[in-house]
Amino acid sequence: MTSRKTLANAIRALSMDAVQKAKSGHPGAPMGMADIAEVLWNDYLQHNPANAKWLNRDRFVLSNGHGSMLLYSLLHLTGYNLPMSELKNFRQLHSKTPGHPEYGYTDGVETTTGPLGQGIANAVGMAIAERTLAAQFNRPGHDIVDHHTYVFLGDGCMMEGISHEVCSLAGTMKLGKLTAFYDDNGISIDGNVTGWFTDDTAKRFEAYGWHVVRGVDGHDSESIKAAIEQARAVTDKPTLLMCKTVIGFGSPNKAGSHDAHGAPLGEAEVAATRLQLGWTEPPFVIPQEVYDGWDAKAAGAARESAWNEKFAAYEQAYPELAAELKRRDLGQLPADWQQQSQAYIEKLQANPAKIASRKASQNALEAFGPLLPEFLGGSADLAPSNLTIWSKSVSLGDNPAGNYIHYGVREFGMTAIANGIAVHGGFLPYTATFLMFVEYARNAVRMAALMKLRSIYVYTHDSIGLGEDGPTHQPVEQLASLRLTPNMHTWRPCDQVETAVAWQQAIECHNGPSALILSRQNLAQQERTAQQLADIARGAYILKDADGQPELIIIATGSEVELAVSAWGRLSAEGHKVRVVSMPSPEAFDKQDAAYREAVLPKAVTKRLAIEACIADYWYKYVGLNGTIIGMRSFGESAPAEELFKLFGFTLENVLDNARTLLG
Ligand SMILES: Cc1ncc(C[n+]2csc(CCOP(=O)(O)OP(=O)(O)O)c2C)c(N)n1
After folding, report:
1. What is the residue-wise DSSP string for 191-237?
2. Global pTM?
3. Which of 29, 54, 59, 134 has its CA 20 to 30 A from that of 246?
4. What is the mean pLDDT of residues 53-76?
């Protein structure tokens, strides 16, 4: 039988050879963590290489994503759809082996990692999802959802602030099936970490309420095994395994040094490492007995078919639950969704109300929530302001089968945890904070967009309209930057009807996250025909119009639509032909066919005015260089909202002045 060392050396050889061939990459971490990975993957990980999406698989996350060759080696060796040609193509265009693991590119890559600290956050999300799904669906004698979440992380992840946010929450939530392997090699890019990272990490995690196993020899399989056993024995706390490893293990001149971190070892050192490891094969050649030692295909198929039998028994006993679990796993909406959501929107249109869009959002949750048990909501300690709790919200703290997470003041952690929940499957996460604090969550928002995740962001207090809290809390540039993020779907609704449509569209969106940009202040309801109601979902539509070709088009979003409509009334009375376009989602509008876009914004009409209480520059795209924008060009101020709207020109008089100047 092939020794464990030889099995681990296969990872080392593949990693150093792939990095060498690519002329870039990180050989050190894969070489250092190879022994740990070998024990975890060969002795513990419950997975099936033939079905990377098997519902009950253990989740594995490489938070130190720079060590991507570790994961690619594991997937290749254990039998996933990742042939050697892909390893030879490491970091090349259209390969399944990009520089960092990318969700959706490679079977078996559970999440995109690379920005340090977010993989551990995603893993916390996966562990929350597993426990919640289990609580919602398992029945006595039927443990259908029952898997572990394992995560590797290094000093970089530990230093990142987000690791504090999420590990603190994981401790509080007692996520007993989460096991983190800390690659305690004492090295980061700049060298030995003693100059910049001297925390007592074990004590830190104990303070969070974690179970910590100290002194794991990351190169001794018995020590690793014993540590994993200890982790599994403690079921009411997440476990951190403090694994002492040597970065670049096996490299005679670069092991233990940052020289092994982020560059190829070099031809001569690769040869010397082969000698030291006793690895005699040429690059990208794995002996059959080594493949045999790693092959997880038969065991994986057996595991999944055993689970399938369990599921069949569950289906027999609980047919409705089983069907519901399948639906949720596939991310499908309930059969009556279309009809019910549409009926709600029509009802709102027929029953006008002047309410804040954040309140309208809560009403939408109240209407849609009963249809969507997959909702797993939460807010970063702003629930009473974000209005994210509805009458059937149940905190996971009170009931493990609940549907609401009190994330605490952890915007970045919350958003990255939601990413983990989304990739786990079975849930539709929504999270919330003030729009301003998207800044704190920014990179996790970007990762959700990059991964095209189904995740909904409720961002309230959307402009200077939040008033007295002042410029620290008043978003200016945030909305535009969300709109500029690829795969992001941004909605800034103008009344309760557009808010419900925004929720509906976000819920139906399967190719990226959606951001709902909501007001603190009340917004008047607009009148609409059935056609106008249907056109909201197209991102922009004609809300008010003139007979024939308009002389002027006013484009507005959210709280500024009211102003545009008032101006339209006055200008029309003066005999001008004016059109008002409500544009809750420019991105959705841009995706409409050319005929629709031309019908709403005819190219011939060049007199255009945009009104939005956020950064002005975004709107040149729609008004052109000769157009006029009433928007923000500075940060806000602390004062009541009405005074601020006056100060910054969001008044009927100013809109009329600008419109008249354009009309000439
Ligand atoms: C948020 C973020 N900042 C910086 C980097 C660049 N970076 C990649 S690896 C690394 C050092 C990581 O050190 P460690 O986790 O100890 O990894 P090791 O050197 O042990 O492989 C840095 C700074 C990154 N990937 N993500």
Report:
1. EEGGGT----HHHHHHHHT-EEEEEEETT-HHHHHHHHHHHHH--SS
2. 0.98
3. 59
4. 98
